[in-house]
Amino acid sequence: MDETEIPKKLQNEDEETISLISSLPLDVDFDGTKLFKYQGYWYNDKTLQGVLHFQRGFEPKDMDIIIASFPKSGTTWLKALTVDLLERSKQKHSSDDHPLLLDNPHGLVPFLELRLFTETSKPDLTTISSSLRLFSTHMGFQTLREALKNSPCKIVYVGRNMKDVLVSFWYTNCAQLKIEVERSILDSIMFESFCRGVINYGSSWEHVLNYWRASLEDSKYVLFLKYEELKKEPRDQLNILAEFLGCPFTVEEEESGSVEEILDLCSLGNLKNLEINKTGKTLKGPEHKNFFREGEVGDSKNYLTPEMEKIIDMIIEEKFRGSDLKF
Ligand SMILES: Nc1ncnc2c1ncn2[C@@H]1O[C@H](COP(=O)(O)OS(=O)(=O)O)[C@@H](OP(=O)(O)O)[C@H]1O
C-alpha cells in the first residue's frame, strides 16, 4: 500500500510504524471496512493501532491475568465470573457496591487494544489499584504472547462453536448499527467474509486453534474454556477456573453455596436485568445491553441454512484436523 493511502487514524504514527503498516496485506470486510493482516490476523485501523501500541508499550506484571477470546464467544460472561471469583473474599453478593452491580464486565476488565492502548502506547495503568491486574483482549495468541515476553501472566481463553459466534456477531452488528436484523446481511456478505476469515480479528479458526495449541503446550499459563462446557457444567468449569487462577474454593465455601452464588450473579438472566446493563454504555460506545442476548448453544440452527452450516462444518473439519479440538 502506498503510504499516502494510510488511514487517517494511523497517519500520526512514527515512521517505522507507517512503513510497517504500508507493508501489510490489505482486504475489506463485509461492510467495506479496510482490514490489515498483521501477524496472521485481520484488524481494522483502530484495532491495529491499539495492537501496535500495546505491543510497544505494555509492561507485564507477573500476576496479570488476561481474558482472551474471539469476539462473541462468551467474553462478557467469563469477565463477570473472573471478577466475582477474585472479589469473593472482599465483597458479599448481597452488598449494594458489588462491582458487578456498579459496572458492566467490560468496564471492570478493560480491553487492552480496544480501550487502554487505543490512543497511546503508555496509558496510565497506575489507577488499577489492585496488585492483581485483570485485562482482556481479542488479539491473536502470538501477538499477545510477544508483548508478554516471558512473563508468567495467566491467560484464560474462551472458545465457542463458530456457527453460534457468527449468528451472535450478526445480531450484535445490527444492534450496534441500530438497523433491523436483516437476513440479507447475514446471507450475503457477512457469511462470505466470515468464511474467508476476513473480519476484524479473523480468521476465527486460526484464532481459536492457536490458543488451543498454546493451552496444550503451556497448561500452567493458558487455560482454554469452552462456552458450551460452561453452559453444560458451570460448577465444574468454575472450579477449573478457580484452580487455574490460584484461588480454589475451600470446603467451607463449597458447602456454603459460594459456587452457586457466583453462577447466579453472573448468569445471563441476572446480568441482563441489572440496571447498569439495561441502560449503561461502555466508554468506547457500545451499549451494555448489546452484550446480552439469548446465550443458547446451537442457536445458529434457527438462522443458518443447511447449506451454510455445511460450508462452515467443512472449513472447520479441514482447519481443526488433527488438533483434537471440537465444539
Ligand atoms: N452471563 C452470560 N451467560 C451466558 N452467555 C452470555 C452471558 N453474557 C453474555 N452472553 C452471551 O455471549 C455472547 C456475546 O459474546 P461476548 O461476550 O464474547 O461478546 S463480546 O465479544 O464481548 O462483544 C452473546 O451470545 P448470543 O446470545 O448467542 O448472541 C451473549 O448473549
Automatic annotation (TrEMBL):
InterPro entries in the cross-refs: P-loop_NTPase, Sulfotransferase_dom
Keywords: Transferase
Coiled coil segments of this chain: none
Provenance organism: Arabidopsis lyrata subsp. lyrata (Lyre-leaved rock-cress)
Enzyme class, first EC level, given as a word: transferase
Record EC number: 2.8.2.-
Keyword match Transferase: yes
Family recorded in the similarity comment: Belongs to the sulfotransferase 1 family.
Gene Ontology MF terms: sulfotransferase activity
One Pfam family here: Sulfotransfer_1
Protein name (Swiss-Prot/TrEMBL): Sulfotransferase
Residue span, Sulfotransferase domain: 63-323
